[in-house]
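This part of the workshop introduces the protein records we will be handling. To make this concrete, we reproduce a full record directly below:
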Amino acid sequence: MRTLINIEQICITVAAVLALVLPGTVFAANYPKTKEFRIERGMSNEAAGCIECHQKEHPGLFADWTKSRHASANITCYDCHKAAEHDKDISQTHFKEDKVPITAVVTPKDCSRCHPDEAKEYSQSKHANTVEIMWKLDPWLNHGMNSEVERASGCLHCHGTVLKMKGDSLDPATWPNVGVGRVNLDGSLGSCTSCHTRHMFSVMEARKPEACGQCHLGPDHPQIEIYMESKHGDIYTAHGDGYNWDAPAGTWTPGLDYRGPTCASCHMSGAGKTMTSHNVTERLSWELQAPLTVRPENFGPFPNKTDWNTERDKMKEICVQCHGQTWVNDHYIKLDQVVQEYNDVYFKPAKAMLDKLYAAGLLDNTRYFDEALEVEYYELWHHEGRRARMGTAMMAPDYAWWHGFYECKKRFNKFMEEANELLAHNKKAYKAVDFPNATGSKEKPKEVFGK
């Protein structure tokens, strides 16, 4: 059985061309197909069947796989997709047609067969647990203020759906999805292909900032825009073509393989005494996404298991590969000052005013976002407040000031003006009676929170 027909055809063509260029030299039409012979010897019948079919039906998928390290190591479709007949995530359609039990959804549990450490680290991260975090933190979900369609196409695209079956197939309301916190039918959380996209699973791709920029962008968490504005982003833009993106995992070294760091360099890759990790929650000393900035171990929706000083030291170890200790220490002094200023000057007074309006009955807290001041308060922390804090942390002054604190001032002043007007006249706020599509479920998914 010849499974890699394309390689054979290429070899025949090469032999023919060489015969024309170098007349008198004999080149066999069956020029040795070393890789093909090796694969043929070591491939199961099920794996060979997968490749034969997908080469014809999905040539792009097949081409990606042939370029992957998986293919080089003789890891086939079947090795990743294989399942037992009793598994919850078995593809019934495939099993009925081909009698081979496979899962259409490859999960971190499947990947852990070969990558146990990475899967365990990932499972402990905010990425893997972001569905839980989202439901504990987000008022859009908790108050049902958007529709299921809006959620699936927006929020859940990155955060992850709770996968479900509909008959013999995956429910299209929950699939396709590669969200970082996807709740899988086998009980695992997340999707490795959020960053290592199918079917090449390139470490190079995951190391580039564009991989993170799929989700970390826009008005509420513009990390990719912040990074590209920063000096780090400038260096990546200028010199990134010369980086050694394909260095083996755990060996990617600043000064040797790259000049300026990417998102992965700081938050995941190892350097100095800090080890590589797939837990992006490590190395964080502030929870900058929260309404009130707190230490990660005090973040209610998902407390970190270690002390913030320990994690800051890990990040500092990354920083000092390229910066002096004084430079690094002073950067963190400025970040801490920004956090305190945001907390004390903007968030705490706005939160106190919001609570005062609710207590006076001038705002209705049975729903959210149907009154203008609720939106103003939300965007103060969720938009401008995040940008000020994240812009400072990643050294992007335009986001720290013009998109951050400057906008915080405008938002804060407007919020307080309207709030004081209601209090002065004991007047209830206008409520949007025609608020569109506030139809989403308010029930937390039992797959995450239990019954």
Observations:
- The longest helix spans residues 325-359.
- The two ends are 52 Å apart (CA to CA).
